[in-house]
Amino acid sequence: MIEPLCCERVEIALGDYLEGDLPPQLRMRVESHLAACPECWREVQKLRHTVTYLADLPRRRMPQYLKESLLRAHRNDRSTRSLQVGSGLLPLSQGS
Ligand SMILES: [Zn+2]
User: How far apart (Å, rounded) are the C-alpha atoms in residues 36 and 6?
Assistant: First the structure.
């Protein structure tokens, strides 16, 4: 049985989602949440745009550290209310 994800967990997972780093099951759950939640959908468009734009700059690929700090800033921004971040990835990929 597939448990629906709440907005916060989806938003925390967006970085990995855009990187293609989510396990298939979690990815499906994120996608089905995005299909039903305009707020998170907007969020993913915004983040995807930023990541794609930076990654596609001609002859100037976004340095890995910049991409990571961008994604980390996004995670921290969305998750500091209820989660301790700072040590790295949340154990989302072990979910279900
Ligand atoms: Zn949502």
Answer: 11
